[in-house]
Specification:
This protein is of the alpha+beta class and about 190 residues long. It folds into 2 domains: about 10-105, TATA-Binding Protein, CATH 3.30.310.10; about 110-185, TATA-Binding Protein (2-Layer Sandwich). The chain has helices spanning about 20-30, 70-90, 115-125, 165-185, and strands at about 5-15, 35-40, 45-50, 55-60, 65-70, 100-110, 130, 135-140, 145-150, 155-160. A 10-stranded antiparallel beta sheet has the order 2-3-4-5-1-6-10-9-8-7. A hairpin with a 3-residue loop joins strand 7 (about 130) and strand 8. The longest helix is centred in the last third of the chain and has 21 residues, at about 165-185. The chain is elongated, with a radius of gyration of 21 Å. The two termini are about 30 Å apart.
């Protein structure tokens, strides 16, 4: 990947396989020293850990999401910490059968060039949305790559994808080629 591409968020999901009494879980785990904060929301519990980059949202159904990790390894570390706490308080019996799967990656990219986003919007056609009165970026949905890219006039972009690095490399190459073709027409 180009040096200017950075993973800024890896999101994953897991399932404990049973419904939970969230108030009881909150009461059990609130004092754990590994936990920075535990908050009750209308949908579930949000758990932030000391020393981990990920935040967990746990729901009554037993399903949970981890967001805010800066790597797949960080996502798995946060999951391990979470499972260890649940075992410690008898909420689950062991780690076997509980895993987290990556559902989304967010990358930050700097194309190192200014972009005329009005022209780029026209060039990209139906794959792009640009409404400068509401949002000063192009939202690009390439039809052949499973991702969404937000493009600014400064060349800074954010890419959301469920397929990871492969999609990022492909969409950056495709966009750079389109920008080069657009520049040649000027």
């Amino acid at each position: 990947m180009p040096e200017s591409v950075e993973v800024v968020n890896v999101v994953g999901s897991g399932n404990l396989g049973r419904e939970l009494d969230l108030d009881a879980v909150l009461q059990d785990i609130a004092g754990n020293s590994s936990i920075d904060s535990v908050d009750r929301t209308s949908q579930g519990i949000t758990v932030r850990f000391s020393g981990e980059t990920g935040t967990i949202s746990l729901y009554r159904s037993g399903k949970y999401t981890i967001m805010g990790s800066d790597s797949v390894e960080g996502l798995h570390r946060t999951n391990e910490t979470f499972l260890e706490i649940l075992i410690e308080y008898g909420i689950i019996d062991g780690k076997n059968g509980y895993s987290v799967s990556v559902t989304n990656y967010v990358y930050s990219v700097d194309l190192d060039r200014d972009i005329n986003i009005t022209q780029l919007d026209i060039w990209l056609g139906e794959e792009a949305e640009y409404e400068p009165e509401q949002f000063p970026y192009i939202v690009y949905h390439p039809s052949d790559i499973d991702c969404t890219m937000t493009i600014s006039a400064s060349g800074k972009c954010v890419i959301n994808t469920s397929v990871g690095e492969e999609a990022v490399n492909r969409v950056i190459s495709k966009l750079k080629q389109q920008l080069d073709e657009l520049q040649m027409q000027e």
